[in-house]
Amino acid sequence: FDEIESVNGTGASVYAGTVTVDTTLSGSTYSMIDPSHGNGRTCDMNNGTSTCTTFTDADNAWGTGATSNRQSAAVDAHFGAAMTFDYFKNVHGRNGIFGNGTGVPSRVHYGNAYVNAFWDGAQMTYGDGSGNARPLVSLDVAGHEMSHGVTENVVPGGLTYSGESGGLNEATSDIFGNMVEFYANTTADPGDYQVGEKININGNNTPLRYMYNPTLDGSSHGCWSSSTNSVDVHYSSGPGNHFFFNLAEGTGATAYGTSPVCGSAAAVVGIGRAKAEKIWFRALDTYFVSNTRYVNSSTPSNTARAYTLSAATDLYGLCSTEYKTVQAAWTAVNVAG
Ligand code: ASN
Ligand code: ZN
């Protein structure tokens, strides 16, 4: 029989530099199956949409780093899945997307010139992009999509994917996608509070979204208004992203960009990522329900502001600096108390 063991390979990724990839050796063949992260595997859709073949290699040195190298995109996806797994486990105590330690498949090279990536409830899928857009396998994209899996498993019934609740769903994915990027701490793709800055989806090397000033993308709302509930979820995410940035890093000029306050709100001094991410996760895991909003006239208690304040109270105490900063960070995006 063949003995199966877990081994550390080396991968030349497209975006994250040279990284360790956890693989499996069976006989004399290495497979992209990761026993250290719930046996998550990475497989090749071969630009089709049905069958997926687990990547194998003879020497456990994967890819070249070239955008066009088929193994390199797989390295990014495999590394992204492992970093996202480690992030939720080590930072939030969440044992995988489902909470049971199971890893998930990552399917790369999906379809023909497919310019998206998605979580389908069970697995990850990544396209190669088209034109100037590159494979959609960067750390923040992997973390974003798998965080959709966390959201749908920790919020009863999930966060409904339209209007303000959909914006909170998207913001949760942008927030944790970026926190995964910070957690992985690679030189080639460090945390930055931008979403999709590596994949050139706009063709001019600009990111898809900017958490510190969401309006920079031309469509996202940076401040809540009565029309926020009517825009696409990738734009109604703006106030949530902007709140999180203000809570972690503060308003005004920061190391990551300048965050404007909305209206005549007071400036905010951030409490740091480590506290901000704990507050958001606890609010999501413990308090959010499927129709939570930024501002809720029919049920004023069912808001992200109220729930992040409850989370801050649980973690740091009522009227702690952290609690007061949550208040100020929401007020700075026009979500008043
Ligand atoms: N990439 C998109 C997103 O995560 C696709 C989707 O699943 N809605 O928002
Ligand atoms: Zn999303």
Automatic annotation (TrEMBL):
Domain of life from the UniProt record: Bacteria
List the active-site residues: 145, 234
Write out the coiled-coil annotation as residue ranges.
Answer: none
Q: What family is it from?
A: Belongs to the peptidase M4 family.
- Protein's name according to its UniProt entry: Zinc metalloprotease
Instruction: Name its species.
Output: Phytohabitans rumicis
Full-sequence range covered: 193 to 529 of 752
